[in-house]
Write a structure and sequence with these properties.
Length: 387
């Protein structure tokens, strides 16, 4: 019989693969697929259409609908420019914490999910246990829907999806939707002493950024309704985190680029904000072209992520509460892949070990206590599927 690795051993292997989003995740997927197939799992691979990346769906148990899928992403954010006390791609234990890129977000959960499938393969399950691993979550949740479209028709459809982002095993039943638009402003360069004859891409971009400020002020002044009131903040916010452009202090900027993003509460549509932003952009562009016809603004959709809406009597929430004992009401403002499962008719919640505050930082870690609690969660899940 093929020997089983411990969750810690699996974590060390997963962390050793430097699956930064800009790079391939194929070696990690190769290893996970090989290991799970050795334990009798049925695996289906989904390939990125143009890059060396792949998603993986695996499952064990009877071929019937109604099982549980453990969902995680395999990509991590870069470590460039971060000051780490130890090798970010080697798990290091210090003071009750396991350090490494992805230990919290979210290879800690991924390791437990791989362990759970291998462990469940020797059990007599009444419902199947699935695993869904994606790529490109960190650059816009781009890998979830392609995986679901490709793989769901080929497997017994699960009833419940547990997305293991780090929530300290609290049951998160809702999160905001997201949308991001790259904005490229083309100006017309002239000497700043006659700036009125040219178009400054930087100053025109600033007007669009300020439009985002006004949107935030207007939304913050509203009285939140229904589920929206659960969020922090309880309104849709616009944000620009990075902007670049210009040549010199005495030349009107010929180019400026930034990303306008929105995080939308369930009661509002990301698309409506995209349309409002584009209308503002076209107004600004018309004013620019009235000065010089070569001025222009180009918009490119980077991503649009689905929100997770709290379900009434949701199967995923009921199961997660049973496994964790958490009876609180929790929503978050960051995005996850849960909304994609929900949109495909699979009840979904976010629930995983670790703390989101550790994600993306130098010396990212998950506590040993949280990792052990995650293991206990998986043991209870397997027991539930055996019952």
């Amino acid at each position: 019989m093929t020997s089983r690795l411990s969750p810690r051993e699996i974590l060390e292997i997963l962390i050793s693969f430097p699956t930064v989003s800009r790079d391939t995740n194929i070696p990690l997927i190769d290893w996970v697929q090989s290991y799970l197939e050795e334990h009798g799992a049925i695996c289906i691979r989904h390939h990125h259409p143009s890059e060396p990346k792949a998603g993986l769906w695996a499952w064990v148990g009877p071929r019937i609908e109604g099982g549980v899928v453990l969902s995680g992403h395999t990509d991590v954010v870069p470590v460039d420019g971060q000051d780490w006390a130890s090798d970010p791609f080697v798990v290091s234990e210090r003071d009750g914490k396991l350090y490494g890129r992805g230990c919290a977000d979210m290879k800690g959960f991924d390791a437990l999910a791989v362990w759970a499938l291998a462990e469940a393969s020797s059990k007599t399950l009444t419902k199947p246990l699935h695993l869904a691993f994606t790529y490109d979550e960190e650059i816009g949740l781009l890998g979830a829907d392609p995986l679901l479209i490709d793989c769901l028709p080929q497997v017994p459809k699960p009833a419940v999806a547990l997305i293991g982002e780090p929530t300290e095993l609290q049951v998160v039943s809702g999160h905001k939707a997201g949308l991001a638009i790259r904005t490229e402003v083309k100006g017309v360069e002239v000497h700043s002493s006659i700036a009125y004859t040219g178009v400054s891409a930087v100053m025109e971009a600033a007007k669009l950024v300020d439009w985002g400020n006004r949107v935030n002020a207007e939304n913050a002044a509203k009285t939140p309704q229904g589920i929206d009131a659960m969020f922090d903040p309880p309104w849709t916010n616009a944000h620009v985190g990075l902007i670049s452009g210009g040549t010199a202090h005495n030349i009107t900027a010929g180019y400026c680029e930034f990303v306008m993003s929105f995080r939308c509460v369930p009661g509002e549509s990301p698309e409506s904000y995209a349309q409002a932003y584009e209308a503002e952009v076209r107004r600004r562009e018309a004013e620019m072209q009235a000065v010089h016809p070569d001025a222009a603004i180009t918009l490119t959709r980077m991503f649009s992520s689905k929100g997770l809406t709290p379900e009434t009597d949701g199967a995923a929430e009921a199961l997660a509460r049973k496994l964790t004992g958490d009876n609180g009401s929790h929503v978050v403002s960051y995005g996850t892949e849960a909304g994609y499962f929900q949109a495909r008719g699979v009840s979904a919640v976010v629930c995983g070990p670790g703390n989101i505050e550790q994600a993306h930082k130098p010396d990212e870690f998950i506590t040993v206590e949280q990792f052990d609690k995650g293991l206990a969660f998986m043991r209870r899940l397997i027991d539930q599927l055996e019952a």
